[in-house]
Input
Amino acid sequence: MTRMPQGPAEPATPEAIRAGDPEALKAVVDAYLLQVFRAARGAGLRADLAEDVVQETFTAFFEAAPRFEGRSRVRTFLFGILYRKISEARRDRARERANDPIDEVMESRFDADGSWSRPPLPADRVLRRREILRALEECLDASPSRQRFAFHLREVEGLSTEEICKILDVSVTNLGVMLYRLRNRTRECLESKDVEA
Amino acid sequence: MLTCREVAEVIASGELDRASWRGRLAVRFHLAMCVRCRRYARQIRAIGDGARTLFVDVAEETERMARLAERILRPQQSDQGND
Output
């Protein structure tokens, strides 16, 4: 018996998934459709494109089912497929450069001693919740989908660092850089709009 | 003593979530004394909270989900029928 990381119970056994049991495959769809769709939206896909990508993700899962060994959770496996489908759909991995401009922005915020030279500003504008959320949505849009996907899995789906690293096939350090960039870019963007989320 | 830059890094990268109690304590100590980093930490946290709120709406799209589930499962069932 392999040790499973903690989390919700699996919707079906690896044996039933491998056998292509329709009940098992339906159970997987029922268990994860919403989460997978939400994550596709979280990566910045519009609803109609997200639907297509989610359908492709499950189709790829069904195709791979005979080889599913159950070494990772169904969820991890599905999010891994989704991640590749999103990259294909957006073809924007190239846009994520080694030198992200946000790094320079952050550099300019601190002095040589590492203290704030331009400290974070408090927001003065009084906005309604809806307007704040709309501003946040716009600001999140400024980040590459890979960073958004990582951030979504962390903050909205509440996945562990280990699981996210497995899904994205990156190191813990790498994931940290992605989250750091997205959060700072978003914070800078909100600050420029004089908004606090 | 941690610098503001270091505190911002461990907070935004999520390193703080995995830090030892000693590491967490050092950050807490800095935050207790530094209003600027407190503001920064609050803003970073609010971005996560806001993202969760944004996706509450998406969770309510039950009709879309039902349609999508059917779209996904239909070819699957007809494949079975062709065997």
User: Anything to note?
Assistant: Chain B is about 90% helix and 0% strand. Chain B touches chain A through 42 residues (CB under 8 Å). Residues 4 and 36 of chain B are 8 Å apart (CA to CA).
